[in-house]
């Protein structure tokens, strides 16, 4: 699954040995007075084939179903522990092979959906069928839920991580992996699709129809999926036989009524991705068909359900003329989800502590395949940039490990974060670079072959990759050091060129800590370190495994002292570095000789020094002009976001703020002028994206009068303000439209807001709606801001995944924060009901702009109890509170520092 997050743990029980924990749980749960298994279920009862029949009417508020779970009972028991959340169970029985039926009394015994079925008699060891009839309400973007984007009713599903238990009773854990027989009974005119191909459709006497699907491969419950409604189902060309696959794979699109024609781009560009992955994995696409669903309302970015991948519709309903961001998102997200068909679906993690096996791998592989097929996208930068972003959260004392023990349900959702996805992807990339691309690929192939159609653990993957390296034990130790401890390595580097010795790097490593951190710096990793250095008139590259707090790295190819040293060659390592002053100055002088990734990690080293308090505000700003000249847009814009924090927390008068904005404008204006204000035929996607970033920065952050005035006029043309009042989305190129609409609504007063609201109510285009909502959410006029907040609770106006466009746009404006907090508090229960079982982002929005220990303490007191049972809530709150404390420490340390 690809999560869309709006912002950037201690555990009660570390389940590092699942088999031991399961065995202990087995003993504990044979009787009715056993403790409730809020983590992993016992293995007393293990499901085999599951038959699931659901009766679904998208126009109703509830649905019903029946399931038969063919299970194996390890030893006699009078309790069956399962999952089922907020289900109305009408009947439950255990049916023995001889036909005897034992009644089961159901009770949901925990808020997470732990279901206790108490047997009226002892269920003997051996085979048993568990038959359950039930009803349930539709969920909120979780489980089976309803959407109504165009006046028509649809059902969509999202089972990961815990949605399945809200849809049907079962064994809702990744290691329970079995085939499914799915039957959907739906209104006669509706389309019904699921993971497997349709086998038959039967018209029923009541006018409904029964659609039966082919038995699936072995799947965990979180990969089960279905959609029901008046969908368009455009058929693409079959994915042609390829490599070891000798049969074609049927490919279809699925879109809301009237939108099917917009799936053409998706259908044309999916087969090349499948073929490229089959080439890499050496294994055929693992399922019988592939449907790409463009869901009108979807909480995640996309979900990798086997054979029925569900995406936000904005990712699928595009064409060649879409914005650069949309096109690149289509390729990146599609490749991510397709990679899951092997990593996650063909081979599944045993427990949620190994979620990184799914998500880190799909992040890394998705970028790799997209870069192979679309080299102009420069997706190698995405892995690097993602890793650098992850370092922010990974620098917190409250951060989590990649391979994080998980003992209760709130911690599962916490694993869907930048540590799992971006840090995990960066670590995989680092080890691929060190082991070698072919050897790494061979390890991946061995892992898939050994675990196909089953479950696996971190050790299984690491052993398979390490076995392909020249130093298996060292690589394994190093790999484990990165996944089994939190934090960012900081490598301090000096150069020893003493007479009579070969030049060498003198290294010290510890954990990187920002100003005010309470974490201990005393950590060490096994770092696959590659360096580049200039010596004897040549640039050399050398790699080695660095272990221990102190190490010496001989520069084997240097006859004399190097002119400069880059301690993270090509930016492939997940670590930060700090050079001794002499060598920092030398590397700065060689900035133009570094490749684009090295320039980016060089810029990050300055950001890290600033974050740790080793650079002043003035020194950090002085470094930015060099970065602004860099070839890659990511380096050119590195550090530009600091202006907002300095304005908010260090400057007290508008004259000082205006002077700061003018100084930042002077740094970046030459780059914007070189690009120009309008797109050019034949220019690169990178130039278009950089122009978009810079224009948004000048118009909205720096409030540059000339740029802002220009874009107000462009935004007015989109809105029809001053003209016919009709929406004209093509009045501005899509790459720049969001900025144009935003400043036009912000500066246009009630007239612009009224038009934006009118267009919102008339449009079903998710991209247009996002732009309009974000614009209206960012107005600072109190009356208009109040109207924007009212959209959130108006019945039927916003899709659930649109709510945070308004809330976080308001949180981004200092003038709106006090009113927003008052509104969030007054409407907390209503908002939480819309977001349940999630909703931790409410606290994050409430906290926007806080930067004092008093505010951190108050936030903790206000939300601690509320977050206890919110999926992901406890960790999100801890990290938000810690972030406020770090902000307070940084402000205290920097207050009074000169800006010039």
TrEMBL record:
<dbReference type="InterPro" id="IPR014782">
    <property type="entry name" value="Peptidase_M1_dom"/>
</dbReference>
<dbReference type="Pfam" id="PF01433">
    <property type="entry name" value="Peptidase_M1"/>
</dbReference>
<feature type="domain" description="Aminopeptidase N-like N-terminal">
    <location>
        <begin position="51"/>
        <end position="223"/>
    </location>
</feature>
<feature type="domain" description="ERAP1-like C-terminal">
    <location>
        <begin position="564"/>
        <end position="884"/>
    </location>
</feature>
<dbReference type="InterPro" id="IPR001930">
    <property type="entry name" value="Peptidase_M1"/>
</dbReference>
<keyword id="KW-0378">Hydrolase</keyword>
<dbReference type="Pfam" id="PF17900">
    <property type="entry name" value="Peptidase_M1_N"/>
</dbReference>
<feature type="signal peptide">
    <location>
        <begin position="1"/>
        <end position="23"/>
    </location>
</feature>
<dbReference type="InterPro" id="IPR045357">
    <property type="entry name" value="Aminopeptidase_N-like_N"/>
</dbReference>
<keyword id="KW-0479">Metal-binding</keyword>
<keyword id="KW-0482">Metalloprotease</keyword>
<dbReference type="InterPro" id="IPR027268">
    <property type="entry name" value="Peptidase_M4/M1_CTD_sf"/>
</dbReference>
<comment type="similarity">
    <text>Belongs to the peptidase M1 family.</text>
</comment>
<dbReference type="InterPro" id="IPR024571">
    <property type="entry name" value="ERAP1-like_C_dom"/>
</dbReference>
<dbReference type="InterPro" id="IPR034016">
    <property type="entry name" value="M1_APN-typ"/>
</dbReference>
<dbReference type="InterPro" id="IPR050344">
    <property type="entry name" value="Peptidase_M1_aminopeptidases"/>
</dbReference>
<dbReference type="Pfam" id="PF11838">
    <property type="entry name" value="ERAP1_C"/>
</dbReference>
<keyword id="KW-0645">Protease</keyword>
<dbReference type="GO" id="GO:0004177">
    <property type="term" value="F:aminopeptidase activity"/>
</dbReference>
<keyword id="KW-0732">Signal</keyword>
<protein>
    <recommendedName>
        <fullName>Aminopeptidase</fullName>
        <ecNumber>3.4.11.-</ecNumber>
    </recommendedName>
</protein>
<feature type="domain" description="Peptidase M1 membrane alanine aminopeptidase">
    <location>
        <begin position="265"/>
        <end position="470"/>
    </location>
</feature>
<dbReference type="InterPro" id="IPR042097">
    <property type="entry name" value="Aminopeptidase_N-like_N_sf"/>
</dbReference>
<keyword id="KW-0031">Aminopeptidase</keyword>
<keyword id="KW-0862">Zinc</keyword>
């Amino acid at each position: 699954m690809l999560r869309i997050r709006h912002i950037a743990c201690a555990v009660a029980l570390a389940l590092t040995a699942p088999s031991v924990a399961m065995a202990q749980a087995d003993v504990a749960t044979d009787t009715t007075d056993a403790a409730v298994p809020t983590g992993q279920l016992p293995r007393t009862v293990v499901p085999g084939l599951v038959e699931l029949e659901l009766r679904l009417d998208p126009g109703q508020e509830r649905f019903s179903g029946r399931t038969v779970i063919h299970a194996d009972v390890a030893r006699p028991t009078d309790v069956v522990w399962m999952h089922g959340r907020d289900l109305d169970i009408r009947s439950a029985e255990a049916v023995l092979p001889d036909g005897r039926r034992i009644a089961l009394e159901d009770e949901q015994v925990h808020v997470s959906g732990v279901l206790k079925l108490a047997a009226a008699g002892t269920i003997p060891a051996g085979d048993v069928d568990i038959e359950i009839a039930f009803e349930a309400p539709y969920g909120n973007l979780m489980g089976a839920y309803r959407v109504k984007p165009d006046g028509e009713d649809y059902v969509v599903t999202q089972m990961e991580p815990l949605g399945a238990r809200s849809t049907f009773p079962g064994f809702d854990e990744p290691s329970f992996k079995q085939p499914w027989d799915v039957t959907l009974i739906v209104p006669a005119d509706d389309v019904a699709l699921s993971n497997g191909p349709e086998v038959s459709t039967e018209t029923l006497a009541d006018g409904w129809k029964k659609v039966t699907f082919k038995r699936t491969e072995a799947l965990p419950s979180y990969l089960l999926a279905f959609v029901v409604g008046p969908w368009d189902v455009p058929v693409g060309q079959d994915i042609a036989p390829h490599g070891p696959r000798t049969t074609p794979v049927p490919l279809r699109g699925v879109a809301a009524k009237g939108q099917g024609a917009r799936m053409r781009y998706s259908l044309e560009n999916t087969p090349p991705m499948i073929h490229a992955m089959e080439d890499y994995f050496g294994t055929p696409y693992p399922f019988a068909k592939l449907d790409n669903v463009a869901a009108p309302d979807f909480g995640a970015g996309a979900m990798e359900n086997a054979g029925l991948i569900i995406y936000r519709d904005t990712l699928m309903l595009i064409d060649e003329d879409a914005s650069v961001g949309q096109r690149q998102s289509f390729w990146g997200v599609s490749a991510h989800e397709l990679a899951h068909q092997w990593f996650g679906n063909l081979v599944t993690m045993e427990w949620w502590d190994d979620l990184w096996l799914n998500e880190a791998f799909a992040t890394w592989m998705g970028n790799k395949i997209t870069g192979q097929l679309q080299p102009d996208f420069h997706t190698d930068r995405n892995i690097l940039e993602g890793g650098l972003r992850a370092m922010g959260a990974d620098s917190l004392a409250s951060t989590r490990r990649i391979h994080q023990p998980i003992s209760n349900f709130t911690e599962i959702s916490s694993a869907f974060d930048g540590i799992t996805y971006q840090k995990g992807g960066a670590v995989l990339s680092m080890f691929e670079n060190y082991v070698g691309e072919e050897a790494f690929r061979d390890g991946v192939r061995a892992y898939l072959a050994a675990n196909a159609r089953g479950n696996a653990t971190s050790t299984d993957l690491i052993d398979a990759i390490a076995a392909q390296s020249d130093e298996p034990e060292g690589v394994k130790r190093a790999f484990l050091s990165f996944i089994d401890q939190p934090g960012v390595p900081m490598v301090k580097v000096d150069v020893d060129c003493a007479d009579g010795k070969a030049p060498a790097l003198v290294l010290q490593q510890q954990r990187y800590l920002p100003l005010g951190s309470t974490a201990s710096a005393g950590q060490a990793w096994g770092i696959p370190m590659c360096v580049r250095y200039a010596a004897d008139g040549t640039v050399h590259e050398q790699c080695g495994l660095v272990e221990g707090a102190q190490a010496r790295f001989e520069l084997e190819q240097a006859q004399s002292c190097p002119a400069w040293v880059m301690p993270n060659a090509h930016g492939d390592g997940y670590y930060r570095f700090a050079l001794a002053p002499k060598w920092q100055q030398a590397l700065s002088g060689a900035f133009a000789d570094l490749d684009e990734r090295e320039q980016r990690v060089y810029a990050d080293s300055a950001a890290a020094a600033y974050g740790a308090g080793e650079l002043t505000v003035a020194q950090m700003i002085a470094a930015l002009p060099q970065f602004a000249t860099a070839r890659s847009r990511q380096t050119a814009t590195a550090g530009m976001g600091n202006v907002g924090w300095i304005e908010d927390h260090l400057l007290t008068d508008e004259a000082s703020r205006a002077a700061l904005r003018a100084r930042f404008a002077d740094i970046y204006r030459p780059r914007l002028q070189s690009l120009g204000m309008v797109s050019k035929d034949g220019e690169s996607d990178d130039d278009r994206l950089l122009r978009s970033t810079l224009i948004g920065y000048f118009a909205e952050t720096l409030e540059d009068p000339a740029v802002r005035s220009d874009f107000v006029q462009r935004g007015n043309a989109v809105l029809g303000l001053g003209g016919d009042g009709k929406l004209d989305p093509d009045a501005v190129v899509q790459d720049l439209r969001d900025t144009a609409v935003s400043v036009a609504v912000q500066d246009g007063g009630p007239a612009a807001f009224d038009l934006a609201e009118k267009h919102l109510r008339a449009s079903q285009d998710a991209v247009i709606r996002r732009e309009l909502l974000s614009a209206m959410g960012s107005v600072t006029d109190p009356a208009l801001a109040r109207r924007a907040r009212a959209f959130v609770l108006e019945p039927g106006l916003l899709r659930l995944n649109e709510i945070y466009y308004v809330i976080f746009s308001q949180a981004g404006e200092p003038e709106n924060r006090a009113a927003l907090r008052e509104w969030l508090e007054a409407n907390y229960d209503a908002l939480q009901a819309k977001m349940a079982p999630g909703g931790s982002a409410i606290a994050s929005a409430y906290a926007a702009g806080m930067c004092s220990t008093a505010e951190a303490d108050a936030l903790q007191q206000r939300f601690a109890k509320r977050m206890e049972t919110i999926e992901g809530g406890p960790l999100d709150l801890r990290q938000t509170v810690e972030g406020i404390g770090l902000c307070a420490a940084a402000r205290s340390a920097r207050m009074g520092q000169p800006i010039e």
